[in-house]
Each structure stands twice: as C-alpha cells, then as structure tokens.
C-alpha cells in the first residue's frame, strides 16, 4: 500500500490518472498534456504501474495505458473504513 500512496502523492501522477479516467492513452498522448520530457513522463508512468494504479498494454509499437479502476475502488473502500458512522 506504501507504493500506492507514494504514487498518489505527486500532482503530475494525479493528473495522469485524471487523464486516463477519461480515455486510454499512449505515453506520447499523455506527454502532450505536460511541459516535461518524455523520459520524465515514462518515470511517472512506471511508478503508477508499479503501484497497480494503471495497466500497460503493448499494441503494435505503442504502449497503451489505462486506469486500473479495481485498485481505485479498493483504495476508496479502505479510506471509507475510517469514516465515522
């Protein structure tokens, strides 16, 4: 769970998750939304992937990234357990 919170603690990674919530994208398409190098975006994608927050699927010569909604639901369920009744 530590990797998950580390991944969620960065504003760039949160923005990437917001983009993937709307549609699956390649690294290049994601990079178009930021003013940083493509290797920096790849680093952020790697952290999100290691935390199981996104899926990476190779299609031809491109990798398509998508949101792992199951993991997002698990995080929400875990956080809601702290809500007082």
Automatic annotation (TrEMBL):
Annotated transmembrane regions? none
Keywords of the record, alphabetical order, are: DNA-binding, Transcription, Transcription regulation
Q: Where is the HTH arsR-type domain?
A: 1-85
Gene3D superfamilies listed in its UniProt record: Winged helix-like DNA-binding domain superfamily/Winged helix DNA-binding domain (1.10.10.10)
Q: Which CDD domains match?
A: HTH_ARSR
Q: Which domain of life is it from?
A: Bacteria
- Check the record and name the PROSITE patterns matching this protein: HTH_ARSR_2
Family matches, as Pfam families: HTH_5
Q: Tell me what this protein is called.
A: Winged helix-turn-helix transcriptional regulator
